[in-house]
Amino acid sequence: MQTLLIVDDEPNIVEGLASQFEQRYGDSVIILKSFTGKHALNILQSNKVDVILSDVRMPDIDGLELIRETERLWPGTHFIFLSGFDDFEYIHSASKFSIYRGYLLKTEGDEVVMEKVDKEIRRSAEEMRAETERGRMRAFAQRAALESMLRGGGSWRDFPMQDNELSLELDTGRPVYMVLGKFLLHQAEGMQILQQLNRLLERQAPGLSFELLIPEEGTLVWLLQEKDAVRRPVTGNYIHALFEAVQQQIDDACGMAVGMVVGSACGFTEILEKYERLNNIYHMIYRNVGKLIIVDETDYSDVLLSQGSALQERFQFSIFVHKLGQQLHTGTPEAVAELFGQYFGASDGLLQCGRLHSEQLLTLFTLLLSFLRENRMGSSYEQELAHMLEGILHGANRTEPEAFMEKAMDFCGALCRQRAENEAHNTEAIINRINLYIEAHIEDYDLSLTELARMTGFNPSYLSRLYRMHAGRKLSEHIDEVKLKHAQDLILSGELVKNVAERTGFASPSAFILFFKRNTGKTPRQFFEEYATGRQEESKQNGIACQ
After folding, report:
1. Which of 92, 110, 460, 546 has the fewest CB atoms lying closer than 10 Å?
2. Distances (CA, A) of 126 to 101, 132, 351, 430
3. How many CB atoms lie within 10 A of CB 440?
4. How confident is the model at residue 304, as a pLDDT?
5. How many Å apart are CA 473 and CA 505, to the nearest integer?
């Protein structure tokens, strides 16, 4: 989403252009407005702006100072001047800045201005895409070299990342974790799965840098590293848990079984040997337990000594717990019941209640307790969970595990219902909080989408969509409505137009009058006079009625 800032000390020009751009772009471009150079600079100090359309001569900070500060803060911005004066000396000075993109005269008309801004918004978006693509091409070459090395086509000394032109987001001087994955898919399907895998990792592990390689058909290799090794060091257990979650989500979403071996940390000079070792481990274990495996390099020997059926049962329970966690966060009571039926059904269930070990039951209770506390479900649910635990340890449920699992299923279904109610209430609370903030700060000059986004902690684009979805109209429309109602109340109380303009956040009376007339069809004076005339007529009618 692009951002456009319009700066001019003539409010009617800013409001008129902003209105046209809002109609032209809808929600695809964020429109910011400023009536002074100083205020525009304040906006730039806390917001990235893609295109600026600015007046030249302004009373506090002129256009040259504004473009100088903009270039220092945001060197990728496209800056267009819009002036009422054909000042060639000024144009010559402005053209020395790298972000300068043109000089328009206000007499040229709105359509010329709109076309120029359109062009710069497109160019800004294209530049961002091109820069991303250049990085991708460099990364592609480095990734291909790494894959070739894993296939035995070279050594670490030949790798092109040694020139310090790092497009892969990995520090070659620090250890990396390697995870090996195996799958069977057609090439087209495989590329879609790889994209999903990347998105899953980016979402679930924002503190990690990683690269996904395909050294051979049906083989995946992840190289992972902490973005901040000092403040956020990770462990092998964390990497295992992360990929266990990714493995299960891919299986749930696509039905794709990816067997995995999680390697310990190693240096870049050791990744070829690490790859060969993980490959050997996978092929040894695959014969015993099938496709959906995930084991650690460090304890694979213990796994190999286990019985195949027992190991498979452990995997199945791990999958169940993971799916249950997903359902608690996003599912319905019906989906929970279906999940319990699939894994603990009377005859065809994948798991038997009576064969669950105390360690597995503890895992289940830990999941439920974590969910309760994370979502602040309340003490009554925790008490009910405690009674269930007491029952499985000492009560009748110890000898009747089927009854316990039925109770657990009902309990999880209740949690899903409660979570859905809480989410609806939370969204409503956010909307109410925004509305109350607008009413309390309606006289603030800086009341805008970006300010509200900062107050709520949301991205401006997301906040705009959230508000529109749940309130049925744009956030800017609600701000204008509250501002208009406040202005009408002030006018009817006898407040001067100049004071009303100041108290409703407008830089000048002319900007306020333009806003008021656009929304009511009347000037503030006409509005007041119509109201006064109506009151007089009402008084006359009441007097006649009394006689």
Report:
1. 546
2. 15, 10, 54, 35
3. 9
4. 47
5. 22
- Rounded Cα–Cα distance for residues 33 and 18 (Å): 7
Query: What residues contact 44, with CB distance under 8 A and at least 6 apart?
Result: 5, 69, 70, 73, 74
DSSP letter string, 84-98: SS--HHHHHHHTTST
> At how many degrees (to 10) do helices 308-330 and 401-440 cross?
30
Pairing outcome for strands 177-182 and 259-262: antiparallel
Q: CB count, 10 Å around CB of 58?
A: 21
H or E stretch at 224:
strand 219-226
- Beta carbons of 144 and 198 less than 8 angstroms apart: no
Q: In this structure, what token pair is assigned to residue 540?
A: 């006359």
| CB-count exposure of residue 39 (10 Å: 0-12, 13-18, 19+) | middle
| Residue 86, both tokens | 């054909």
State the DSSP string of 367-422.
HHHHHHHHTT--HHHHHHHHHHHHHHHHSGGGT-HHHHHHHHHHHHHHHHHHHHHH
Q: Which residues are CB-contacts of 443 (< 8 A; sequence separation ≥ 6)? A: 486, 503, 504, 505
pLDDT (0 to 100) of residue 188: 44
Q: Residue 351 in contact with residue 317, Cβ under 8 Å? A: yes
Could you tell me how far CA 239 lies from the centroid of its own chain?
A: 23
How many Å apart are CA 29 and CA 7, to the nearest integer?
16
Amino acid at position 152, single letter = G
For residue 84, give every residue at least 6 positions away whose Cβ sits within 8 Å of its Cβ, in sequence order, or none. Answer: 105, 106, 107
Residue 334 is predicted with a pLDDT of 92
Which residues on adjacent β-strands are paired with residue 29? 2
**What pLDDT is stored for residue 475 in this prediction?**
84
Instruction: Give the helix ranges, DSSP H, for 151-186.
Output: none
- The total number of residues written for the chain in this structure: 547
Q: Please give the average pLDDT of every successive group of 10 residues along the chain, which has 547 residues.
A: 88 84 84 88 85 89 90 91 78 86 86 91 85 61 73 54 54 88 61 73 84 83 84 79 82 76 86 81 62 73 50 70 83 90 76 74 85 83 84 62 84 90 76 85 74 72 78 84 91 89 79 86 89 74 60
Determine the distance from the C-alpha atom of residue 265 to the mean position of all C-alpha atoms in its chain, rounded to a whole number: 30
Do 86 and 105 form a contact (C-beta atoms < 8 A)?
yes
Neighbouring C-beta atoms of residue 3, cutoff 10 Å: 21
Nearest residue to 64 via CA among 40, 107, 97, 32: 97
Q: Is 216 helix (H, G, I), strand (E, B) or coil?
A: coil
Strand partners, 211: 223
Q: Which pLDDT score is estimated for 154? A: 53
- For residues 90 and 45, is the Cβ–Cβ distance under 8 A? no
Cα R_g (the chain), whole angstroms: 32
| Backbone dihedral angles phi then psi of residue 104, each to the nearest 5 degrees | -115, 150
Residue 17, classified by CB atoms within 10 Å of its CB into exposed (0-12), middle (13-18) or buried (19+), is buried
